[in-house]
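Appendix C: a fully annotated inverse folding record. The material below is reproduced so that readers can follow the format used throughout the book. The structure is listed first as tokens, followed by the designed sequence.
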């Protein structure tokens, strides 16, 4: 039904993967772009990790690192192509109907309204109507996943969302510049003080009991303060290998924005009674 509605997602982190999975299961062909050295933490649930691994399976969906000439065949196999394309040149080559900026840089790194008939951006750094057609709220809370037809998402608070009652303390950062050597693996159970990684002779340890939810790839060159790991106090290893509620909520917002778009509906041969924000009674 949606074979002609190609969607290109810029970024391959965990939120982008939640979006891609929603769209994939809805029947849309999805292509993703990433930088040569992705910096995502939750690598076990990030399609962008295919840049390192060649291929990755997240909740039964396979993403594969490909060259531009392999995109069509990969889509035909029912897999998600991941292109190493930091400038997103594929936007010009593939001419997608929808572009989703899911880089989560907290700023616009080059997305424009002219990129596609429908351009959607996730989180802060974008203004609907100026940088893109729709913005999806990514801040946890009442508005998570809401579609913004004008204006911007809530500004970056600089404080990670609460997981199991932990906020800033659950996110670990590089104490010095250098390369990371893992001392634990994603999904490992940790006790307070257990070593997670070493960087430049410094050992990064678990700040509390939990599981290692995410760990940056050792190939990423680090600077002091760079985010390197995420510890989940809930202690459920399975959570490390499944898409989060937040990512699925954001993905649902993107899916709704696409299905409600007059441009997309015209290409599908359907009509829209009225476009506008989805309203519910409290």
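Designed amino acids, in order:
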């Amino acid at each position: 039904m949606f074979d002609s509605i190609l969607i290109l997602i810029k970024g391959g982190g965990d939120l982008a993967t939640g979006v891609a999975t929603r769209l994939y299961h809805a029947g849309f062909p999805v292509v993703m772009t990433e930088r040569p050295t992705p910096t995502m933490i939750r690598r076990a649930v990030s399609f962008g990790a295919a840049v390192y691994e060649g291929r990755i399976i997240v909740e039964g969906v396979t993403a594969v690192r490909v060259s531009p000439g392999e995109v069509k065949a990969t889509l035909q196999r029912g897999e998600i192509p991941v292109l190493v394309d930091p400038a997103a040149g594929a936007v010009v080559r593939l001419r997608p109907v929808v572009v989703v900026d899911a880089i989560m840089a907290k700023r616009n790194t080059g997305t424009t309204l002219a990129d596609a008939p429908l351009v959607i951006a996730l989180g802060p750094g974008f203004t609907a109507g100026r940088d893109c057609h729709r913005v999806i709220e990514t801040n946890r809370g009442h508005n998570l996943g809401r579609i913004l037809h004008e204006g911007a998402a809530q500004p970056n608070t600089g404080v990670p969302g609460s997981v199991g009652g932990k906020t800033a303390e659950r996110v670990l950062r590089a104490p010095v510049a250098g390369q990371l050597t893992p001392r634990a693996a994603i999904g490992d159970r940790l006790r307070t003080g257990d070593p997670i990684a070493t960087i430049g002779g410094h050992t990064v340890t678990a700040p509390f009991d939990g599981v290692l939810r995410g760990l940056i790839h050792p190939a990423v060159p680090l600077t002091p303060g760079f985010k390197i790991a995420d510890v989940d106090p809930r202690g459920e290893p399975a959570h490390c290998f499944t898409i989060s509620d937040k990512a699925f909520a954001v993905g649902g917002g993107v899916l709704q924005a696409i299905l409600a778009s007059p441009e997309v509906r015209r290409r599908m041969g359907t009509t829209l009674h009225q476009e506008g924000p989805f309203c519910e009674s409290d």
